[in-house]
């Protein structure tokens, strides 16, 4: 191969986030090198410089990052000690291991946020049923590591509900975190990008709708959000990014309580589902700003391009009625302004296989168009709607 014209960035994990990083990487002429968990996974379909291997194996990580300027991630599951070993060998690990551990371990995250004075749900590490009883029902139990999309989260209302969480934690050799069950009005997300030089860009705070722990819909900006609360949410995200020395995108998932407060739910240190709207709705997408931050380039503007942007995920339905590519003629003809992003994944029940974005001045119109398109691809609408 000819010598790369720009520094190469290694990306660990071949999911849709890595796939979507490839788009701005191509535009900016930044070569990516991928470590994929299996052949043909989402990002492996679009990043040609790739290797298949196990991200839990240090030698594999060393091999794939050789000659790269920086390494970043599609997911948060690379063992902290491997990240430290790569950093010690001189590689720019972004985000670095001491920052990333707060997105990997909910116990570590809660302790740190308490130290920073960031508002969180009441919480405690619990090691027994007696501990949960002392904490009080109802509660939410979470495994401290390894959870995603609602896996590893249990709402418990009585002692009998707790066994599953403790069994899962024991099997995975992790701890159990108890949190108060927050009576929230809605979920918000504050996304910032931060570069190693300390430059930061804060995106408008968005509202997200989760079903069964999976993000379904995002509205940017969050409708009717009190201005002071929006500013507070952005400040919280910037404070966390700075205090933890985050490099790249940080997503802070928040609860807006019914009495007008915000509480931090969790952190993600990579492009996030609640930031997919930025691909079509912001001057610079979260994927581009993540890459810029990873390479310590000046960040792009996070300003919105339209009054409203709506993102709706395309999830596999219960049947195999879904139509992805086959859904294009109707979806594209019905709405020439629709923006479609598919991940190259097969439809499976509950699986995120893509998303659509709409933008404009009328929120109801944006919602209708995005929901219709997502339902159409999912296969929930019959031919009568054509
Ligand atoms: P994951 O790591 O799977 O994303 P989260 O901690 O974000 O797990 O929890 C998944 C979902 O469960 C949240 O989006 C929220 O809807 C609900 N949830 C989590 N923690 C609480 C809580 N303390 N009170 C109420 N609901 C919660």
Automatic annotation (TrEMBL):
<comment type="pathway">
    <text>Purine metabolism; IMP biosynthesis via de novo pathway; 5-amino-1-(5-phospho-D-ribosyl)imidazole-4-carboxylate from 5-amino-1-(5-phospho-D-ribosyl)imidazole (N5-CAIR route): step 1/2.</text>
</comment>
<feature type="binding site">
    <location>
        <position position="106"/>
    </location>
    <ligand>
        <name>ATP</name>
    </ligand>
</feature>
<dbReference type="InterPro" id="IPR003135">
    <property type="entry name" value="ATP-grasp_carboxylate-amine"/>
</dbReference>
<comment type="subunit">
    <text>Homodimer.</text>
</comment>
<dbReference type="Pfam" id="PF02222">
    <property type="entry name" value="ATP-grasp"/>
</dbReference>
<feature type="binding site">
    <location>
        <begin position="265"/>
        <end position="266"/>
    </location>
    <ligand>
        <name>ATP</name>
    </ligand>
</feature>
<dbReference type="InterPro" id="IPR011761">
    <property type="entry name" value="ATP-grasp"/>
</dbReference>
<dbReference type="InterPro" id="IPR016185">
    <property type="entry name" value="PreATP-grasp_dom_sf"/>
</dbReference>
<dbReference type="InterPro" id="IPR013815">
    <property type="entry name" value="ATP_grasp_subdomain_1"/>
</dbReference>
<dbReference type="InterPro" id="IPR040686">
    <property type="entry name" value="PurK_C"/>
</dbReference>
<dbReference type="InterPro" id="IPR054350">
    <property type="entry name" value="PurT/PurK_preATP-grasp"/>
</dbReference>
<keyword id="KW-0436">Ligase</keyword>
<keyword id="KW-0547">Nucleotide-binding</keyword>
<feature type="domain" description="ATP-grasp">
    <location>
        <begin position="110"/>
        <end position="295"/>
    </location>
</feature>
<protein>
    <recommendedName>
        <fullName>N5-carboxyaminoimidazole ribonucleotide synthase</fullName>
        <ecNumber>6.3.4.18</ecNumber>
    </recommendedName>
</protein>
<keyword id="KW-0067">ATP-binding</keyword>
<dbReference type="InterPro" id="IPR005875">
    <property type="entry name" value="PurK"/>
</dbReference>
<comment type="function">
    <text>Catalyzes the ATP-dependent conversion of 5-aminoimidazole ribonucleotide (AIR) and HCO(3)- to N5-carboxyaminoimidazole ribonucleotide (N5-CAIR).</text>
</comment>
<dbReference type="Pfam" id="PF17769">
    <property type="entry name" value="PurK_C"/>
</dbReference>
<keyword id="KW-0658">Purine biosynthesis</keyword>
<feature type="binding site">
    <location>
        <position position="142"/>
    </location>
    <ligand>
        <name>ATP</name>
    </ligand>
</feature>
<dbReference type="Pfam" id="PF22660">
    <property type="entry name" value="RS_preATP-grasp-like"/>
</dbReference>
<feature type="binding site">
    <location>
        <position position="187"/>
    </location>
    <ligand>
        <name>ATP</name>
    </ligand>
</feature>
<feature type="binding site">
    <location>
        <begin position="179"/>
        <end position="182"/>
    </location>
    <ligand>
        <name>ATP</name>
    </ligand>
</feature>
<dbReference type="InterPro" id="IPR011054">
    <property type="entry name" value="Rudment_hybrid_motif"/>
</dbReference>
<comment type="function">
    <text>Catalyzes the ATP-dependent conversion of 5-aminoimidazole ribonucleotide (AIR) and HCO(3)(-) to N5-carboxyaminoimidazole ribonucleotide (N5-CAIR).</text>
</comment>
<comment type="similarity">
    <text>Belongs to the PurK/PurT family.</text>
</comment>
